[in-house]
From TrEMBL, chains A, B, C, D, E, F, G, H, I, J:
<dbReference type="InterPro" id="IPR023750">
    <property type="entry name" value="RbsD-like_sf"/>
</dbReference>
<dbReference type="GO" id="GO:0042806">
    <property type="term" value="F:fucose binding"/>
</dbReference>
<protein>
    <submittedName>
        <fullName>Fucose isomerase</fullName>
    </submittedName>
</protein>
<dbReference type="InterPro" id="IPR050443">
    <property type="entry name" value="RbsD/FucU_mutarotase"/>
</dbReference>
<dbReference type="GO" id="GO:0036373">
    <property type="term" value="F:L-fucose mutarotase activity"/>
</dbReference>
<dbReference type="InterPro" id="IPR007721">
    <property type="entry name" value="RbsD_FucU"/>
</dbReference>
<keyword id="KW-0413">Isomerase</keyword>
<dbReference type="GO" id="GO:0006004">
    <property type="term" value="P:fucose metabolic process"/>
</dbReference>
<dbReference type="Pfam" id="PF05025">
    <property type="entry name" value="RbsD_FucU"/>
</dbReference>
<dbReference type="GO" id="GO:0062193">
    <property type="term" value="F:D-ribose pyranase activity"/>
</dbReference>
Amino acid sequence: MLRGIPSLISPELLKILMEMGHGDEIVLADGNFPAASHAQRLVRADGHGIPELLRAIAKLMPLDPYVDRPAALMQVVPGDKTETPIWGVYGDILREEAGLDVPFEHVERFAFYERARAAHAIVATGEGALYANVILKKGVLPAN
Amino acid sequence: MLRGIPSLISPELLKILMEMGHGDEIVLADGNFPAASHAQRLVRADGHGIPELLRAIAKLMPLDPYVDRPAALMQVVPGDKTETPIWGVYGDILREEAGLDVPFEHVERFAFYERARAAHAIVATGEGALYANVILKKGVLPAN
Amino acid sequence: MLRGIPSLISPELLKILMEMGHGDEIVLADGNFPAASHAQRLVRADGHGIPELLRAIAKLMPLDPYVDRPAALMQVVPGDKTETPIWGVYGDILREEAGLDVPFEHVERFAFYERARAAHAIVATGEGALYANVILKKGVLPAN
Amino acid sequence: MLRGIPSLISPELLKILMEMGHGDEIVLADGNFPAASHAQRLVRADGHGIPELLRAIAKLMPLDPYVDRPAALMQVVPGDKTETPIWGVYGDILREEAGLDVPFEHVERFAFYERARAAHAIVATGEGALYANVILKKGVLPAN
Amino acid sequence: MLRGIPSLISPELLKILMEMGHGDEIVLADGNFPAASHAQRLVRADGHGIPELLRAIAKLMPLDPYVDRPAALMQVVPGDKTETPIWGVYGDILREEAGLDVPFEHVERFAFYERARAAHAIVATGEGALYANVILKKGVLPAN
Amino acid sequence: MLRGIPSLISPELLKILMEMGHGDEIVLADGNFPAASHAQRLVRADGHGIPELLRAIAKLMPLDPYVDRPAALMQVVPGDKTETPIWGVYGDILREEAGLDVPFEHVERFAFYERARAAHAIVATGEGALYANVILKKGVLPAN
Amino acid sequence: MLRGIPSLISPELLKILMEMGHGDEIVLADGNFPAASHAQRLVRADGHGIPELLRAIAKLMPLDPYVDRPAALMQVVPGDKTETPIWGVYGDILREEAGLDVPFEHVERFAFYERARAAHAIVATGEGALYANVILKKGVLPAN
Amino acid sequence: MLRGIPSLISPELLKILMEMGHGDEIVLADGNFPAASHAQRLVRADGHGIPELLRAIAKLMPLDPYVDRPAALMQVVPGDKTETPIWGVYGDILREEAGLDVPFEHVERFAFYERARAAHAIVATGEGALYANVILKKGVLPAN
Amino acid sequence: MLRGIPSLISPELLKILMEMGHGDEIVLADGNFPAASHAQRLVRADGHGIPELLRAIAKLMPLDPYVDRPAALMQVVPGDKTETPIWGVYGDILREEAGLDVPFEHVERFAFYERARAAHAIVATGEGALYANVILKKGVLPAN
Amino acid sequence: MLRGIPSLISPELLKILMEMGHGDEIVLADGNFPAASHAQRLVRADGHGIPELLRAIAKLMPLDPYVDRPAALMQVVPGDKTETPIWGVYGDILREEAGLDVPFEHVERFAFYERARAAHAIVATGEGALYANVILKKGVLPAN
């Protein structure tokens, strides 16, 4: 444990967030996402929900201001009746932490898989909600 | 050994089943299948038949409800007279464990090999029956 | 995710629990424990408290009936005023899950470190309570 | 699969048996043995009983004629009432396959662990009987 | 050394032969073949001729009955006067061990290289005869 | 780069600082220290002086309150006239960041080497001052 | 430390510079560049600005005389108002160290990423200026 | 050191020369060649000129009699005035050691790079002459 | 294959022989020797007898002139009636190739094992004779 | 190749020299030294004499001023008539490059081996002179 680092961020996850640069993407994958088969770098966060991880990451990592929508969600498959109230939770978090009003791009399921496969890393969470996966694109920071 | 985990499921196999996500496939390969040359991840289950493995896995892992037929068999090569009574055994197991009536897609031999090559893992069993290979596609679970 | 496996148990942790045998020990280490420097096998469980992990593990893994006290706690260093109410929580969990009334041995701090160094694995949790480390010794199961 | 090799002998186990030489020891460990923590080389044989493995190995591998008792069992811990009928099964197998009448040395539990730690390999079986572990010391063969 | 395994079959070669399945190919490469640069899995058998290896392998491993010619030779390059009496030796061996009368396909030199590159393994022998390379395609066995 | 993490802390160094626990030690080694030959884990920080690293680390990582002097310096070898004004700089930094007045233990040169060899990690800096090595012992944090 | 090697050049960086040959490229990446995801070989130089690294490297490594412009910069994205005064600093350094007046090619952002992906190595610096990345193409030296 | 092996041939280089087969190519690269970035297998021979290596290799390894020109040189880039007297030295060596009068194919610079990338190995020498790189294609030997 | 290197010397064995220096020992182990469990570096030479390997090695590698007896044999265990005619064969080979009349030290069985464990390498042959193991101690060569 | 680095210093050797610190030792081993079996880190410099390497290293690396004799030679074994004129060459080089008049400690053969085993690295040269091994102990440098 270090001062100012939330304990649900693992050392490996923090290292990967630091190594990411402008335009690199990270996937917060729900418990049903095929993370191990799609990840270039896999970080386990078993047992954690995505909202608390999203908030912790959004505090540490800026989102990309060079694109219109620096976050992406997986569209509900046509015909599937699943509701996605967790998207509202994500919206609130990104509004509070990143000042973004309409941050989300919506991506068809298999296109989402392809984008996850190209992402810098995937975080395998225990999130139980369906369609709860979210991709974040990193922005830039001035030197510190 | 742990409570509730059948002893024929090896630690490595259980880990791989857990790491699989929605849509990932696993091949239960008979003793003559070219498993080592086709597997992205190879798990040995030498000396075990497929029916007992299939039942143990079906108890632990849900099958994909987003496709019509979440399991696949290798078609008998035209001209080959081999009978495949083991398919009936598989059907009974999936009916009992997964509540599926017509779970099987039938795939031509070389197409089956290509699909096995793309699968998340292959389990190399000692199953002696011919044409006994079976592919399972994982489904989704609510959080637990 | 698999049926019957709590989502806070990571695939790697489950694999290690399965591979452990009679007399092997596992340390559930609090957030301040020097886990990386002492572990023969290190499993990360960042952000999780020990009580929920202890309960999940105690459901899966039997404790050793061949020793008087199959669990161990780190003694408070003489002069340190820290209270350890979490020990009562652990006691309740082991009473409920393992039927043990007096399960704990109390081990001096540096002796505890040496025993942790010899343990089969250490789980690095985010538990914030002090003196919250606990060692579990695995028992035996009949075949299943 | 190859002609003449029983399908419960995995490729890795056969390779290790071949690489062993005069005086090297292999442990057939029951399902409760701490195999992963004691093995220099670990072979998994989950779900298999020891008798069928013992017979298959005894057919392939000679036992050491330079010692009085080329096999060893773990003594029942004093006070433990467990019966060990499986020892008789082992005795029958070694009589039939190796022509030995009194093959077994009996080793105290913790001395057995130390000897297992020095052995060339440990096979982790799913054998459910208690005190079912057995150590085999390899002998010599004329050239073939 | 094990009973019934010829001593010129190395532990690694036997393991690879066991792991091969229906349709997998293995190349027995003469001393001049570019084995290291073409092999997916390379096994050294320095100093051995191919005929004794071919006979030992043919005793253990069935050839593929689903193709007309389960073995392949490299055609002599046009204009090269080299004689290939060793092909007759190979023919005799496969007739005796596998009951095949016309087992060989003849493959142009660079096509042979490509097929070797896709093979499961290459055995680098010390065979001194030219054009002595041979590819074997594995068949199926009933359970044992 | 992440918010709040100074850019001279490398991702690997931050990961190691996070993984350290109570009582683990880290060496900030000057440019002449034999870091590669003594380190269990080596982190390069070429071209950086120790004062800026010490300040950055002291902001993130608590020092051990269970020992009298949680930092250590290498004593000047008897007969060596070297002055060590940098020790005063270190004292100021630890007073400001950790509130410690007399934080330093002074350790004989070869005893210092042995302690460095047992430390969790060594950071190889480009610090040009002589006798500028410093060891820090990590403390505890409440959960966050 | 060695005589004549600046301490901000790490051992690994010097080794890579030595191993590079005529036409190989190295990227000096600013703190926001996606270095870890694009690098074939990644060298960390956290906390260092690019100008001092550029000067140190230009003293050691010749630039390619076979191309018109042996260095490359990333073009400012259209619409972005960022100024790039650091380019002037780079120009001065290359004029002084390499005698080049117009060394820079200007490359569109995504083309720059592709070229970085093909480069021999990327140095991840802590440079805080935006658009501060620079690619260097190595030249030739007579024997020494 | 072994009898009959020149001391400038390293153990690794000799091993690679032995493992090469008919048609495999090896590049002797001068000190400016981008060896590390192009090599499938890289052997260092720092500080050695190519002529002595060429002679030592030509004594051990036959050249390919199935192609017209079993060696290749890099063409001088159009407009470059560099002289290549070392080519004459190479010609003398191959005449004396391999009995070849016109052994060299001349390959355009970037085509040479591609061929080097496909070669079995590259030897990185310290040769100071420019355009001194040479590719050798291995031939066949009768059994010994 | 290379000129002058016998084809039963594998590339790996030749590399190890080259890397050995004055006083280093190599064991030529018969088919029953526990080579894999005792070797620091293991080279397989399955299917070969020791006499032909001994002759090939003795031609390449000098024996140590600084000790009285640069070769060692394993003594027959007291009570064992085995004859060792192969020792005479070894004596003839070393007389012819190394000019030694009484080259052999005789070492008790378990002392021989310890010495093998400390040797630089063990060659696992297929030699069928019993007590056929031999240790060679390397000597010195003038530069070549 | 880089400016100012002699081409007989390999990239790996330079990296190791840089990583060494005060008191670390490096062995320049002649062609007969058992380098591979004694080295913690082995660098090959086949075909090179020690004098040119010694001079190149002495230019780059300071010797230890804290000990009386920062270099060491292997004593001639009693009874051995070998002359060691190369020691005078070494003395001249260290006088010219390091300003040392009596730099050499003389160490008995087996004590020399033990010291080499503890050294940071061994450079395996092709030096043909006997008793030509030399150990160098690194000193300190002010920051650059």
